[in-house]
Amino acid sequence: MADLDECPGVNSFRSTLSRTALGVSAGLLAGFTALAVAELVAGLFRPAAGPVTVVGGAVIDRTPAAVKDFAIRTFGENDKIVLQLGILAVLALIAAGLGVLALRHRRVGASGILLFGLVGAAAALSRPDAEGVVDALPSLVGAAAGAVLLYFLAGKAEGATRRADGTGDGGWNRRGFLVLAGAGAVGATSAGLLGRYLTGRQSQGAVASRNALVLPAPSSPAPPVPRGTQLKVAGITPFTTPNKDFYRVDTALVVPKVDAGTWRLRIHGTGVSRSRTFTLEDLLARPLIERDVTLTCVSNEVGGPYAGNARWLGVRLADLLAECGVVPPSRGGKADQLVARSVDGMTLGSPVEDVMDGRDAMLAVGMNGEPLPFDHGFPVRMLVPGLYGYVSACKWIEDIELTTFAAYDAYWVKRKWARRAPIKTQSRIDTPKPFARPAAGTVTVAGVAWAQRRGITRVQVRVDDGPWQDADLAVQDTVDTWRQWSYRWQATPGGHNLTVRATDATGQVQTEQRTRTVPDGASGWHSVFVTVT
Fold first, then answer.
1. pLDDT in the model for residue 212
2. Most exposed of 295, 371, 446, 472 (fewest Cβ within 10 Å)?
3. pTM of the predicted model as reported, rounded to 2 decimal places
4. How far is CA 335 from its chain centroid?
């Protein structure tokens, strides 16, 4: 039998495999270096300009509403992590391919890395919160570092593979490749760690300002939550949602950390006779209101988790607008839309009439007795009871412009969501969970229902195709909060479908018609299937 080592086909295969492995290694290391150096540069100048962050933001901005809806529905609050991992995976595949290409065409492979740096720079400059050419530096400098490393690694790898195909001993070049690769890995890792450190230091001022903030007592405190509002039912959603459990749905890949001492809010635009700029101290010196308000995300599917109730502390927004000379359209005001802008460039459009019609629309500074968490908008966020969050709940707000719906489309409206979005009457079964296996006998079916600005007056439960039965209602707190309900079901063995519907205080029964979240919120009855044993 012939020696396999003397077989030309085997030697050729080994040569190709060795070359490919070295090329992939060189490409991955060059890609890692590019990202690490970019993170260092971003840490020196502006962390929000990091390439993964800006490219991810550009992807989000250009993703159709239906795809975003699918991502939120499928991955929940982990959608941003999934996106970032997806970007890194794609970059890794491209870097590996460029590494293999560079073994034959070093300049072409290195130019590929530079090309992706240009893509990152373009994405950075296209972001609504871009601060000029400095935002392009992380992607450009990082790509340059990665391209240079790939160029030289490819040269070493080319010599190192000659031994495998019999054209040379490859000794010095192989050692050179390993030395250069090792030095590159150490340098890139150090750059990445230093970048993380610098990014952390930049946020220390914001963290310190939040820790030092003492919220004043409200001039108009919320009344105590009435007894009987919280039902003693295992598995039901708490009436007040703890901050750590409150849902988060936004487009920010990196949560903005704003220093309360440098934060400013500007109010200006059409119909504003006196433009003003407020500091956080200005707001805290004003009379504050405290209210229990349930917020709901328009991306919440029927029975979904993106609703939460909290006790908010803030400044009445209508008072600030009135001081700036704003008059609602019903009284002859020129502006019918309030555009709120976040520090990350997000824009949300709210009807001026709704903001100034007497409801407790506010600029919130506190949530459940503490300063706003960073995830939920510290130092100041906006909320308007009765409207879905995408038209009312601007987090990290820094600018309010009065304009008209005819003149300007906010972020989500440009992506085919509705301009006006009052919250629909909804109900949800919290317990038993879908596919639960309760024992036969008395089973408590329970959950929450909401119809902000209207309130819930009736909840009914249906077992299979039987008649609707009235559930017992917990005490209603306010028309701006959800309401708990429960129903004692005499469960019989077998599979059963449980369905719930609610009626609001206007007499409107929750519609059975099933719609998706786009363009103005989901509708339909929530149901769960259980097997009684």
1. 97
2. 472
3. 0.87
4. 30
